Amino acid sequence: MAEIAHYETLKFEDQKMLEEAIDTNGKSVIMAGSQEPTTSKSSSKREKRESPSISLNYDDFLIDYAKSNRSTCVKCEKKIEKALPRIGKLDYNAEKSFNNAPIPRWRHVECFAKSIEQVEFYGDVTKVKGFDELSKEDKKLIKGLIKPTIPDPALNGKKMKKEEVPNEENKLLKEQSDRFFKLREKVSTMKRKDIEVMLSHMSQKSDYKDTATLIDMATDVLMFGPLKECPQCKESRHIRLKASRYICTGTGSDGQTCTYETGEPKRGPPDIPEEIQDSYDFFDKYKFKPGKRLFSSKLLKAVQEKEEENNNTAVEDGPLQGITIGVTSWQALNTDKVRVQKKVASLGGNIVTSLDRSLFIILSSEDELKKDSPKIEVAKALEVPFATEEFLFKIEKIDDVVAQLSKCLINNWEGDLQERFTKMRSPSKNDSSSSQ
């Protein structure tokens, strides 16, 4: 959840559906409580009965004709003859995969039909990618063998139950979500320019490129109150919601990006311009009720776990064992901050934003180095080589480090990279054992 963009802005019901999908690893999600009409023999009236509905990730399945005789059915372990229809499910944990891409595990059509529970396919086979490309005869054959099926009332060892009475947290979150989206519908009727004027009038961030995000933040302001200035950089126009935190993206007097973030920001009452209120009828019934924005405990836990995962705990015996890498600004990189942190840690190194001569390399960009900010001037004075972060993702072994780094240098550094790397890298257990 911590990695799902705009998760915090979804409706309560959609958040719960995503949580269920995550809990089941993207497998079929059984949703209890859908209504299907049925006719009673003893009555002409239509009655309703509870029936589970299925949400299936169809992207995990595919159908095509075998292109050769080399594929093997994973159920019967026999070869699938060329030109015969076959059905596959993607294996995301395959060891021998190109570029970490999932590998399809193929089955004969008949074998797939016998493996419905094993592959967890409780859907409509006509919706699987490749079905429309089949011949008329093969479509009829497959539809006859693989019919929509209601699964056994158990999922991952848990019996399927009707939706339980929500606990206090779910009750509060649903009430908040219902209120938020009711207000959001009203805000979405406003002209974009009027929303921007309203937010700007309250010293809030108003230059969102995406209209949906602009509406979300305007609704947030009207429902919970405008954000007060950041205690660090003294700005409020740069604070925005991300996951379960309000983060500041402003720049301090020292030229460095502000690092302030909080789950409970200080707010004030909305001050809506009169001309805006007069232009939209819904403001006649609008009343502000002070209160803090709630986030689900699952989301808070996911964010915490993600932070711990990216806490720069280096993997032992990696190619960057003992190496520390600096960053001038996360905004200068083309790759997401979390992904870079995770990659450096997986290679055995550490990454920091404080700069000194102990760094092996400093990650930045050509545009960033052209700036006259104090931090860039200090960084250049350290005489540490600069490079883009792309080289990190091409390293598989120790010998790759200098070779790939030399291709990504962005300043005229004239030292010996190999000598620098050898001196700064801490010997790993494998290094010492191999030298004996």
Describe the protein's architecture and organization:
- With 436 residues, the protein is an alpha/beta fold.
- The protein has three domains: 168 residues, no CATH class; 98 residues, 2-Layer Sandwich (first zn-finger domain of poly(adp-ribose) polymerase-1); 117 residues, BRCT domain (Rossmann fold, 3-Layer(aba) Sandwich), CATH 3.40.50.10190.
- The strands form five sheets. Strands 12-11-13-14 form a four-stranded parallel beta sheet, covered by helices on one side. Strands 3-4-5 form a three-stranded antiparallel beta sheet.
- The protein is flat.
- The chain starts with 11 loop residues before the first helix and ends with a helix.
- The C terminus is likely disordered.
Relevant terms:
436 residues, alpha/beta, first zn-finger domain of poly(adp-ribose) polymerase-1, Rossmann fold, 3 domains, 4-stranded parallel sheet, 3-stranded antiparallel sheet, flat, disordered C terminus
Give a short overview.
The protein has three domains: 1-24 and 166-309, no CATH class; 58-155, first zn-finger domain of poly(adp-ribose) polymerase-1, CATH 3.30.1740.10; 311-427, BRCT domain (Rossmann fold). Helices cover 32% and strands 15% of the residues.
